[in-house]
Amino acid sequence: MLRTPVKMVAAALAAGAVLTACGGQVKLGAAALMSTDRISASTLSAQVANLSKNYQKYKGQIQLQYEVSQMPQQVLSWLIRFQVGDQMAARNGITVSPGQQQAELKQLNQSAQSSTTTGAPVPLPALAVANGLPPDLLGELARYQFIQTTLVNRIDGGKDPGTTSGREAITKEYNGYQCRAAKSLNIRVNPQYGQLDYAQISVIPLPSTLSADASPSPSPSPTSSVPVQLTPHC
Predict the structure, then answer these.
(1) How far apart (Å, rounded) are the C-alpha atoms in residues 16 and 195?
(2) Whole-number Å distance between alpha carbons of 178 and 182
(3) How many Å apart are CA 232 and CA 234, to the nearest integer?
(4) What span, in angstroms and rounded, lies between the C-alpha atoms of 24 and 18?
(5) Where does residue 192 rank: exposed (0-12), middle (13-18), buried (19+ CB within 10 A)?
(6) pLDDT digits (tens, 9 = 90+) for 98-107
(7) Radius of gyration of the chain from Cα atoms?
(8) 151 CB-side CA count, 13 A
(9) What pLDDT does 139 receive?
(10) 3 state DSSP class of 10
């Protein structure tokens, strides 16, 4: 189901998608642009630094679910997910009070206490790092989780359907809500970091356009136009 701690929140978003050609520009200094907001390169850089610092603190307790070199893409994915979550809430009349956000964060902390690697509980910040989330964004994760849980409860009436097919149907319906919210934001990712996969709400590498014997081309600049995007099929 979707009501899960940090590790499974990311995993629950996985699915497939299709590439298509698409134009667009990402302005200087922006890691990603939306129709109503932007994620600046400086914000992304600061959060990657936070993730890296906490990785050094917790690396003896966790196993990363990604390569260290992918930290910028992981962090940008979370920043975009939180924007999509807020859009999903706005489109579906969901509000989150400070008290509800704090209660959700408390639940996430309690869930973390049952996660172990060597028999000892793993701190929630360590689990966040393992999944590419800077610990100082855990409050945003709690907000995102509350929105997710509220919407899923509307879909299934707050009851576990009890079958794999039933859970898959709920996940599919939820993913549709999320995909449509993301699509409405017209998200454009700076090709320096990759492209957005709408199915996973995740930043992934740009497809290679090199032939097998071609020489590598220089890395794209922050002001390059976006050559491709994944089309949201929702």
Answers:
(1) 14
(2) 6
(3) 6
(4) 18
(5) middle
(6) 999 999 999 9
(7) 18
(8) 29
(9) 97
(10) helix
Alpha helices in 157-225 (DSSP H): 164-184
Are 24 and 231 contacting, i.e. CB atoms less than 8 angstroms apart?
Answer: no
Q: What single letter denotes the amino acid at residue 97?
A: S
pTM, rounded to two decimals: 0.79
85 CB burial (10 A radius; 0-12, 13-18, 19+): buried
Tokens, residue 3: 């009501």
Domain ranges of the chain: 6-14+50-189
234 residues of the chain, pLDDT tens digit each: 444 444 444 443 333 333 222 334 555 689 999 998 999 999 999 999 999 999 999 999 999 999 999 999 999 999 999 999 999 999 999 999 999 999 999 999 998 887 665 567 889 999 999 999 999 999 999 999 999 999 999 998 888 888 899 899 999 999 999 999 999 999 999 999 999 999 889 999 998 754 444 444 444 444 444 434 566 677
Question: Nearest Cα to 3, choosing from 170, 223, 205?
Answer: 170
Asked if residues 40 and 31 have their Cβ atoms less than 8 Å apart, the reply is yes
Point out which residues pair with 150 in neighbouring strands: none
Q: Look-up: residue for tokens 């995007």?
A: 229
Count CB neighbours of 20 within 10 A: 10
Q: Tokens in use for 122?
A: 């793993």
Cα(23)–Cα(189) distance, integer angstroms:
11
